[in-house]
Amino acid sequence: MARTVLVIGAGIGGLTAGSLLAKAGWPVTLLEASSELGGCAGKFKRNKYLFPAGATLGMGLEPGGIHERVFRFLGTPLAIEPLEQVMEMVHPEATFVFHKDRARHVDGVAAHFPEHSDRIHAFYKEIHHTAAIVRTLMDPLPSLPPATAKEWAFLTKSMRPKHVKLLPFFNQTLGQRLKKHGLHDLKEFRHMLDGLLIDSMQTGSEDVAYLLSAVALDIYHEGAYYVPGGLYRFSELMGNSLKDSGGVLKKRRTLEKLERQGDLWVATDHRGNIYEATDVILNVPIQQLPKILAPELVTKLKVSLRDGIAGETWTTLTLYLAVDSSKLSEPLPPFRQISTGDGLAEGAHFFMSSSVPGDELRAPEGFQTVTISTHSRVQEWNNQEKYENTRELLTERMLQAIQSVVPEFREAVVHMESGAPRAWEHFAGRTNGLVGGFPQTLDAALFNSISHHSGLPNLYVCGDHVFPGGGTIGAAASGIHAARSVSGERLV
After folding, report:
1. Which H or E run includes 479?
2. CA angle (144 as vertex; 139, 148 as ends), nearest 5
3. Peptide bond into 52 cis (omega under 30)
4. By its UniProt entry, which InterPro entries does this protein fall under (predicted)?
5. Which residues contact 332 (CB under 8 A, 6 or more apart)?
6. Which of 28, 232, 309, 366 could be cross-linked to 43 through a Cys-Cys bond (beta carbons 3.0 to 4.6 Å apart)?
7. Are the C-beta atoms of residues 352 and 339 closer than 8 Å to each other?
8. Relative orientation angle of helices 102-111 and 117-135, to the nearest 10 degrees
């Protein structure tokens, strides 16, 4: 029987898997429920303004980065330059600037804490050294937790003597390393780290797995990019490549049911169309699996995947604004974090992504579009009254915080709308608006991650809940692992 591949969901993970397999000569059909590609990294338009769905910056585009490797394999590279100044991090005590240059960045941070300068330099030296070792595993990109003899063999083959140095840190948190360096009680420094980690690791410095946090804190130095238009361009490139390679891409096709019939998977969409395939890659939120799989199939899923389905992650409130730049004293920077000092969620910490002047893919001359996102807990939205109150409260909280940094901001706003949890559920199929994947704590990271192997024959999962975790890099890596398992080849 000739093998065929069905990919469900055109988020970054599904598009990565589908475009790689199509380029390698596999017959691929990709179904997407929305009219837009990209999922949480997609876009939408309001009149003359274009808004990226999520507030994020371009990562993994440096030589050897995950996205760069995929685009190189597809023959569709993105020619863009890295940001030398990655972002501003506005905190109550100080404004930190994240510089691409490691030494300049560390010197700038340490200057805020002169009495702790030596300790901060020693801490970052360890972080950068650890990240450099971990990053050597990103070239072979072994899958965790290994689920087959071939994956165990590949992991073993990927190991080098230098990786032994990582073993003492394997079950440590960043909080433990901060204690080791005498920085655990330096509140303002910890808060700055927490602001970086909540956006990338979905948790703060106390609980985040150390090895992953080292990479997360260091990776901006490898290359962070402003992508004209937004990260939806990743999706457009991969979608076009899939079609150019002979694959089939169908939008506005919502999967209703996935069944196992003999050696085939049979999928039914909301229009009653039937699709048969030997191999299926699901790039849907894992919370949807019980809705599309029969109960007897759900019971056969891997335990970690079933536990993940029942787990809970963050939801979000996202604001989409257009501003008249002529009413600002200076244009908004492309990327900025703002923290009020009152925590990591509920509008007390948020990330702003603004179009740069001249990016007419997003806004006409003289205007900027802005996407702002904060973490929020699901229970804050669990009835209609709380839902509307929380939306108003968090919106006002974020606008006030921005106003304290940019006094003319409110006067400059010419358009504003919000994306609360139900909008994310409708737009991206995110049950309860859950986004970002699981917090990368010791009990959810590395060997405790959710594998791309579902536990069912020739059925794979990818996306931000699957190893290695959230963000476009994590989603793409999980798509690579799924494509490798289908093809039996390394591909990238």
Report:
1. helix 471-487
2. 105
3. no
4. Amino_oxidase, CrtISO-like, FAD/NAD-bd_sf
5. 323, 325, 352, 354, 368, 370, 406
6. 232
7. no
8. 150
pLDDT in tens, 96-135: 999 999 999 999 999 999 999 999 999 999 999 999 999 9
What one-letter code names the amino acid at 257? K
DSSP lists the bridge partners of residue 89 as 96, 337
Q: For tokens 């150390």, name the residue.
A: 210
Does residue 43 sit in helix, strand or coil? strand
Residues in CB range of 448: below 8 A, 6 or more apart: 145, 304, 442
Q: CA 158, CA 134: separation in Å to the nearest integer?
A: 11
Domain ranges, ordered by start, for the chain: 5-38+231-311+440-487, 100-218, 315-433
Do residues 32 and 251 lie in contact, with contact meaning Cβ atoms separated by under 8 Å?
A: yes
Question: Helix and strand tally (H, E) in the chain?
Answer: 16, 19
For residue 421, cis peptide bond before it (omega within 30 degrees of 0): no
Please state the CATH superfamily assignment of the domain spanning residues 5-38+231-311+440-487 in this structure.
FAD/NAD(P)-binding domain (3.50.50.60)
Q: Name the residue type at position 170.
A: F
What amino acid occupies position 222? E
Strand partners, 181: none
- Give yes or no for a contact between 461 and 9, defined as CB atoms under 8 angstroms apart: no
In 3D space, the residue among 456, 458, 388, 442 whose CA is nearest the CA of residue 420 turns out to be 388
Q: What is the pTM of this model?
A: 0.97
In which order are the strands placed within the sheet that holds 274-277?
255-261, 264-269, 274-277
Examine the pLDDT at 311 and tell me if it is beyond 90.
Answer: no
Element (H, E) at 396: helix 384-405
The DSSP 8-state label assigned to residue 342 in this structure reads: S
Residue-wise pLDDT tens digits, 154-173: 999 999 999 999 999 999 99
Look up residue 95 and give its DSSP letter.
Answer: E
Rounded to the nearest angstrom, the gap between the alpha carbon of residue 213 and the centroid of all alpha carbons in its chain is: 15
Helix (H, G, I), strand (E, B) or coil at 118: helix
Cβ neighbours of residue 66 closer than 8 Å, sequence gap 6 or more = 60, 138, 141, 473, 476, 477, 480
Beta carbons of 112 and 96 less than 8 angstroms apart: yes
Asked if 249 and 236 count as a contact pair (C-beta separation under 8 A), the reply is no
Task: Extract the tokens encoding 25.
Answer: 């000569």
Q: Which residues of 170-185 are buried (b: 16+ CB within 10 A; e: fewer)?
A: eeebbbebbeebebbe
Strand ranges inside 274-314, DSSP E: 274-277, 279-282
